[in-house]
Amino acid sequence: MDSYERFVRALDFEEPDRVPTWDIIENIDLIRRLGGVGSAEEVVPRAYRKLGIDATRWPPFLPPIEDKYVERYRYGMQDPNGQGYLICEKPLKFKISARECTEWLVDSPFKTIEDIYEIKLEPMPKDQIVEEYYTLMEKSKKVYEKEGVVFCGCLACIFDDCFRLLGWPLFIRAVYIARDALRRLMDKFTYVSVIMAEVLAEMNMPAVMYGDDIAYKKGLMMPPQFFQEELWPRVKRVIEPLKKKGIKLLFHSDGNYTSVIPDLINIGFDGIHSLEPNAGVDIGRIKEQYGDKLVLMGNIDVTYVLSHAPEYIVEQSVKECIDKAAYGSGFVLGSCTEILPSSKPENVIRMFETNKRYGRYPIIGNREGSKQ
Amino acid sequence: MPHKIYDLKEAILNLRINDALKICEEMLMSETDVKDVFDAISQAMDEVGMKYESGEYFLSELIMAGEIVKEVLKIIESRFKKPKREPVGKVILATVRGDLHDIGKNIVGILLQSAGFEVIDLGIDVPPEKIVEAVKKYDAKIVGLSALLTTTLPEIKNTILELEKAGIRKNVKVIVGGAALNEIVAREYGADGYGKTAVDGLKICRNWIKEMS
Q1: Number of other CB atoms surrounding residue A193 within 10 Å
Q2: Which chain A residues touch B if contact means CB-CB below 8 Å?
Q3: Rounded to a whole number, what is the distance in Å from the CA of B3 to chain A's nearest CA?
Q4: What is the spatial distance between Cα A265 and Cα A293, in angstroms, rounded to a whole number?
């Protein structure tokens, strides 16, 4: 069975030959070791295939080896094009650090509540966004498909990019004392993400991921009411073009967001990703409660299991995860965020090898009654 | 509890920033002892912390309360050159070298300050030598290190080694926190304590100060 069929079957709650896998590799050692030498378009998809990753969502890129600071007028930290589609009026600009593959905003021109009202940060013209984003997605799809890896597009986020732009203290102040200005800002991110969704809706992908970090280790960052009032209606607008085409929608956030899973189902998501065990997420309980409605993805810990643990612990974690979540299909295994630069290559390889051996269907696992 | 102290505490607790600032101004105008203002802040932040721990308050509410306290402290500072309050202890805070994240560290700082600690915040991307220098300079008994990125975690170990090399490790307690950490890794790197949340961090620091006195 090829990766496409394996992945699609899991999304449809049909049993594939084995548990499919999903990940993003941000570990340059692993990419080089498995992918060899060459351009990002050559070596990255090759590394994914050799590792046994069936599907991914991020364009092929080689993580920077050295710390890098850049200054630019464009903003959109979590955009797959790495630059964003919102443009700040000159001479204001963003200072960005590209450490550990993910870019982080070091200095933003937004410092005060007045700035949120006054600074002009506007989306690029729609045709430019479409052209640039389509070119990137099409190229990514092609190079991954060449290696037999499924490429699912990914959408720009609204909440995460907004709070990173303002910084937490200013973002939170805006929530309480400048909600109207904050809403206008969130609308700009929504506008960009809707355009992306319209592009992806025409690209014949089995699934698309909307990633937005709304949670952390302890739980949601904001009260659920905030998400209900401000985020979910916007996300619903974003995913609408994809839902109309019958494309599966996957949600990603780090941290523990189990309390809003019913909201995610209502909005129309078909799967949820990360399910971070270090944040207290029990995938067994999620499977029992929502396993017939949502595809569960991820769940292998990156803070200890993939980065520090001896290999037998990796094997135990993978087996445990499969036992808890793979029965009846609807499960895709992988790291609970991405394969990070701190992940030990041996541990990552062991994770996927264990899945190949232990993740073969039929799987009884912890299905109700199986332990009697 | 005097009326105004209660009002200020309630305004902070219920995240009413304008009310909190107004009440604080009124208290200082009416010659209220600045100690009473600090008491109100302390009590409010203790309750905010409890609400956060119990799950009634979210991270956003903890941050907003901290923002209000920051503004209140600014008013006090503008009135008095050196507001009198004997610190319960001194804490050096830093995000380790290579790491630029400071949300968690800043929240811990506000909670510690509200609880009467003197906080020397060295900022982000702080090299071990600078932390050692600060411990010596301020004679601090607690060092709080934060790391969010998994790649910068070893800097926690490096900082602790640097404290050992400087011969001052036994004089200070080291507490660590950050998204990439857990209890096992914290112990492995030689830390004395791990704060999963900012409130945990405050509790640990308070206990240490009690043990030390």
Answers
A1: 25
A2: 67, 97, 99-100, 104, 106, 168-169, 172-173, 175-177, 216-223, 226, 254, 278, 302-304, 307-308, 340-343
A3: 26
A4: 8
Indicate if the alpha-carbon torsion angle A15, A16, A18, A22 is positive or negative: negative
Which residue on chain B is closest to A218 by alpha carbon? B197
Tell me the fold of B3-79: 1.10.1240
Residue identified by tokens 């109207």 is A180
As for the ipTM of the complex, it is 0.88
In this structure, how many other beta carbons lie within 10 angstroms of the beta carbon of residue A309?
19
CATH class of B90-212: alpha beta
Yes or no: say if A197 and A155 are a contact pair by the CB < 8 Å rule.
yes
Whole-structure pTM value: 0.88
A309 alpha carbon, distance to own chain's centre? 24
- Looking from the CA of A81 toward its CB, the CA atoms found within 13 Å total 22
Comparing CA positions, the residue from B95, B132, B88, B107 lying closest to residue B49 is B107
DSSP assignment of A167-186 equals -HHHHHHHHHH-HHHHHHHH
Tens of pLDDT along chain A (372 residues) come to 999 999 999 999 999 999 999 999 989 899 999 999 999 999 999 999 999 999 999 999 876 655 666 777 788 866 666 678 888 877 677 777 765 556 667 778 899 999 999 999 999 999 999 999 999 999 999 999 999 999 999 998 999 989 989 988 899 999 999 999 999 999 999 999 999 999 999 999 999 999 999 998 889 999 999 999 999 999 999 999 999 999 999 999 999 999 999 999 999 999 999 999 989 999 999 999 999 999 999 999 998 899 989 999 999 999 999 999 999 999 999 999 999 888 999 999 999 999 999 999 999 988 875 644
* Domains in chain A: ranges and CATH: 3-63+112-358 (3.20.20.210)
Tokens describing residue B24 = 């604080």
Nearest C-alpha in A relative to B66 = A169
What residue spans define the domains of chain B? 3-79, 90-212
Q: How far apart are CA B10 and CA A80, in angstroms?
A: 45
